[in-house]
């Protein structure tokens, strides 16, 4: 009997719309995110080694994988230690590649520019060191990579850097930062997310940032302004000028971390967007333990005054680490657009007397973060006890009684396997996830789902810890 040989079925027979997703997954790198989705990458990262291997396989793979390889670009402008110097060298090579192959420019979607200070001040300064300020590379990339959707500039404005003045000359000045922001606004028409982060005692001047963004037109795509490390620099006249532009910015989201400017500056910034839909604010003690104190002691009461200006538009609010516990006059019951509210445990406290003020009529998701808002920045097995269970139950019951839109309560709880409670309290300590499950069963019939991350400690392990002498090491 004669058998006819059928043509082989290979992956190359797939059309591009099926093949491209397969190749994308093959080079995709999963990122572990810390706690909620705050650290989630804007775009999927690429395994460069696998991508280069696929590119060398055939022309079709090269055409489909090359855009993935150049979608996320990282520019390291300076450094001292070996690891960072290797990144600086890679930056020079990447710059040469872009300069000689302009067809790669359109692929970039996310651009990160970093000025590194690691090692500055730890070693004697060597004038012959290959450390360089490659700001010209950052400038060229902002001119060339015009399809960029997200831009992150991370670094230290020029300062004395722990007394090592010669090294500070290698770092960007405020004029450099202003220059880069203006380049981004002028040359990146599709830019949606601008993130500016600085650290320690050399922080961002809000007035410099606003000057750089002064050319921002209402028809631009920029949606999110993400700032970390806003210093005291600025005058009342600056904030009056900004307030005069209220409602003119296309921004719809503000993310502010360690904002040390005063209330007048914050109000003017919140009023600037025509329609602010998302607002996040945190004052992490772990980031700036010895930095400047804020000009205004921010708490939920102050924040209510600020956000009331945009209450008709806000759909997402997140507060964390305000370092001043209590609900004060915070009231979102007339925030009718609010869909998602996220608060830290140490910000709200567990006094439920004003808890009804947190139930917005159309809010569907409430997130409660159990993190300890101190320099250690963690939580333990005693962080979710009876007061926390009672507080969350009171919140759910108010939502049920008011027939609100609440459908999901998220508990962010990632405890270390120890507790600070004393020996007497240890004996009555209950497995935290039993408390959560009990509450989940109570509210499920009303259409409210309660979720948390699966525990890493089993109940038998917990009970052994509670009853054993090992636990006393951590009291």
Offer a quick outline of the entry.
This is F-box domain-containing protein. The chain is α/β, with parallel strands linked by helices and 475 residues long. It has 16 helices and 14 strands.
Question: How would you describe the overall organization of this protein?
Answer:
The structure is a single chain. The protein has helices at 16-27, 48-55, 59-69, 82-100, 135-144, 165-168, 174-187, 206-212, 236-243, 263-271, 300-307, 345-348, 386-401, 423-427, 432-443, 459-467; strands at 28-29, 45-46, 72-76, 110-114, 150-154, 193-197, 224-230, 253-259, 278-282, 316-320, 340-344, 365-369, 408-412, 449-452. The radius of gyration is 26 Å and the shape is globular. The termini are far apart. α1 (16-27) packs across α3, α4 (82-100) runs parallel beside α5 and α7 (174-187) runs parallel beside α8 (206-212). Among the domains are: 15-69, no CATH class; 297-475. The protein is 33% helix and 14% strand. By secondary structure, the protein is α/β, with parallel strands linked by helices. Residues 159-165 and 470-475 have low confidence and may be disordered. α8 (206-212) links the parallel β6 and β7. This is F-box domain-containing protein. It comes from Bionectria ochroleuca.
